[in-house]
Design a protein that fits this description.
about 400 residues; alpha/beta; 13 helices; 12 strands; globular
Length: about 400
């Protein structure tokens, strides 16, 4: 293990499970057919697809016709948001999201804002939870869609959707809910009826499935305009060809997680807590970003290290065969302070000194011991060169 790279950037992507790879191979080698009528190969492909939708639907309390396979989470988000707003613009033109949402949501909000929609961007508290009082004040007769990142991609805060939905229902008219669950699905319990979710996106490669896979849940009766036009092969919302092999891999990844969901989540919590206690014990001048406990996604820890830059920590750990992320792995392009941490009230320095550690089913306590050992050396080395560090004054 000492000479192998250890990967702690599972918010960005995860290692496909071996069972996933094995489940995909038959569809790459022999069973490469698309659904068709009146022949054995196409009929079997149709049966597989229906069976797979049934498996996925059971994990979120949905019905199989409400599941739509896609080529990833971002595509699922775009099909849902653009499809819904284009189909329902006659009902209103007001959208609500928050300043800490994932870029898929924020860029779509900005797109529709430029197209004549009004967008309210809710503020958050110092843990990353949206301001529910502002939500109440923001509701209008024209409000038709509330969008949220169910488990925040940077600090892991799980938005209180049941409370949010109760507020939305108090508006006196129907406000639909879209949830980006790419960091939440498989890590926290999700029942679409209980949480009041009308549309929800999931990415396959963040749950040990193949890259280029995902699914979109759309509640029965919710009207979406098609985003992509063309021939329907596997799904009417993503026309054209979708990888059957990737879809088979996605479903296998889902089966693996939900065959022992409690055990998997307990493992993530144990590893995450073990790491946090080690860091708190060994490294001074740190700040935990986001909530702790049951209100945080169990695979996520975001920590600011005072007096040093996160980018330097990341690069030095990388040279030590440790992969981690600084700021938001999906949003931090360049050296700008992370927008989520700034919204939580972190200073410029605290945002720049943040590191995101995201854990997987494959990590052991021995992996964490190696990470902590190398992290201590990196932090001490960088702080030796910091004129701000109290130990150097």
């Amino acid at each position: 293990m000492m000479n192998e790279r250890i990967y702690f950037n599972n918010c960005l992507t995860t290692k496909p499970a071996q069972e996933v790879v094995e489940a995909m191979l038959p569809y790459l080698q022999n069973n490469y057919y698309y659904p068709e009528n009146f022949n054995k190969t196409g009929t079997q492909a149709s049966r597989n697809l229906n069976d797979w939708k049934e498996i996925v639907a059971k994990t979120i309390g949905a019905n199989s016709p409400e599941i739509h396979f896609t080529a990833g989470g971002t595509l699922a988000n775009n099909i849902a948001i653009k499809g819904f707003l284009l189909a329902n613009a006659d009902k209103g033109n007001h959208i609500i999201c928050s300043v800490v949402d994932y870029p898929d949501i924020l860029t779509n909000a900005a797109f529709f804002e430029q197209s004549g929609f009004e967008v309210t961007y809710l503020q958050v508290d110092d843990k990353g939870f949206i301001d529910l009082d502002q939500l109440k004040r923001s509701l209008k007769n024209e409000t038709i869609l509330f969008m949220t990142t169910l488990a925040n991609h940077t600090v892991g805060a799980i938005q209180p959707l049941e409370e949010i939905n109760a507020i939305l229902q108090g508006s006196g008219h129907r406000i639909y809910v879209h949830a980006d669950a790419c960091e939440a699905y498989g890590r926290i319990p999700i029942n679409v009826d209980q949480l009041g979710i009308d549309m929800m996106s999931v990415s396959g490669h963040k749950i040990y499935g193949p890259q280029g896979s995902g699914f979109l849940y759309v509640r029965k009766g919710v009207k979406l305009n098609p985003l992509i036009h063309g021939i329907v092969r596997l799904d009417d919302l993503q026309t054209g060809g979708i990888s059957i092999a990737n879809t088979a891999g996605l479903v296998k990844a889902i089966e693996l997680i939900f065959s022992d969901y409690d055990g998997y989540v307990s493992h993530l919590k144990e590893i995450s807590n073990y790491f946090l206690e080690k860091v708190k014990e060994k490294i001074p001048y740190i700040l935990i970003n986001g909530p702790l406990g049951e209100k945080r996604a169990p695979h996520n820890l975001n920590i600011s290290f005072d007096y040093i830059e996160g980018e330097a920590i990341m690069m030095m750990l990388d040279l030590s065969d440790i992969s981690v992320a600084t700021g938001s792995a999906c949003a931090s392009q360049g050296l700008k302070p992370n927008y989520v941490l700034k919204a939580l009230g972190r200073t410029h320095e605290q945002s720049h000194g943040s590191m995101k550690f995201t854990f997987s089913r494959y990590h052991t306590k021995e992996d964490i011991d190696i990470l902590v050992e190398r992290l201590i050396k990196v932090v001490e080395k960088l702080r030796e060169g910091s004129t701000l560090y109290p130990g150097n004054k």
